[in-house]
Amino acid sequence: MERIAIDMDGVLADVYAQFSDWHYKVTGIRKRPEDVYGLKEMEAFPDARKYVYTPGFFRNAPVIEGSREIMEALNDRYEVFIVSAAMEFPQSLPEKQQWLNEHFPFLTWQQIVFCGSKAIVKADIMIDDHFKNLDLFSGRTLLFDQPHNHLAPDGNHQRVFSWKEVGGFLL
Amino acid sequence: MERIAIDMDGVLADVYAQFSDWHYKVTGIRKRPEDVYGLKEMEAFPDARKYVYTPGFFRNAPVIEGSREIMEALNDRYEVFIVSAAMEFPQSLPEKQQWLNEHFPFLTWQQIVFCGSKAIVKADIMIDDHFKNLDLFSGRTLLFDQPHNHLAPDGNHQRVFSWKEVGGFLL
Q1: Where are the domains of chain A?
Q2: CATH superfamily name and code, A3-14+62-170
Q3: Tens digit of each residue's pLDDT (9 = 90 or more) over B85-121
């Protein structure tokens, strides 16, 4: 059975939308995806570093459209691991696990990995929105489109714009 | 640079001693290593499952003799990752990270991995006290001697009885 390593932020959890919502609540200004194309989240949203250390930021992030249904189908056909580089934000660890338990209850604790560097991940397929993770990986790679990577060339990666498209490639 | 995946409980953190101390405090009975040879911790200490869910259990575990010095030397010569199957006990995640920060301050958050199954670990060398982890691993394996594995045959693994011995093999 092939093994897939699936990122959380920007792939399952809509952290862009969460940053945008929190920014809107604080400033009254709504930044649309096209306003922040090519910008890192810390550049796009000046208070982003404050937000990610605020309780609730990760716990209440919206789920990306279609991810639950496709994930459930992938979980039947592949060995699925959620791999989140969450170690930078220690207080997020229990929040992220609770979030997964709520929105992806078919996943078990055995399938969750919280790490710093993803260099240590052994799998056949990786789905991620960051080149720094995909570029280190020797298997098949799907680049999940996000505002921060939207303008960058795809490189050796297959860019996908939705979970429906992920399903089309992998199911 | 070769990569080493190093377990926490039973390799860096002396959870056997912690179980034994907590059991002594509750019951007045001191179980020595030889009293629990070959027993899983949950068999050796009837309230073990309660202890591991109690705040402070992991945060205050003793450090295994010699581990800090040898780890610091390994960290200069290898790509070191701490890999702990901590996901079963979510409340332990921040405690384990704080424990590492206190006792192994030369390690960065990039080097820490909290997972469920260790099947996903890609490294050259693994140091662990559990056969279930070492048996899945295709690289070089060091079995760290602990009461629970003490009576089992070594299998394909190199058994080590101390961090001094780890240093002898790897430095």
Answers
A1: 3-14+62-170, 15-52
A2: HAD superfamily/HAD-like (3.40.50.1000)
A3: 999 888 899 999 999 999 999 999 999 999 999 999 9
The answer to whether A110 faces chain B, any CB pair under 8 Å, is yes
Choose among A113, A117, A119: nearest Cβ to B115: A113
Catalytic residue check, A135: no
Give me the percent of chain B exceeding a pLDDT of 70.
100
DSSP line for chain B: --EEEE-SBTTTB-HHHHHHHHHHHHHS----GGGSTT--HHHHSTTHHHHHTSTTTTTTPPBPTTHHHHHHHHHHHSEEEEEE--TTSTTHHHHHHHHHHHH-TTS-GGGEEE-S-GGGB--SEEEES-HHHHTT--SEEEEE--GGGTTS--TTSEEESSHHHHHHHH-
Under CATH, domain B3-14+63-170 is a member of which superfamily? HAD superfamily/HAD-like (3.40.50.1000)
* Structure confidence by residue, pLDDT tens digits, B26-53: 999 999 999 999 999 999 999 999 999 9
> Which residue in B87, B108, B109 is closest to A109 by CB distance?
B87
**What is the complex's ipTM, to 2 decimals?**
0.93
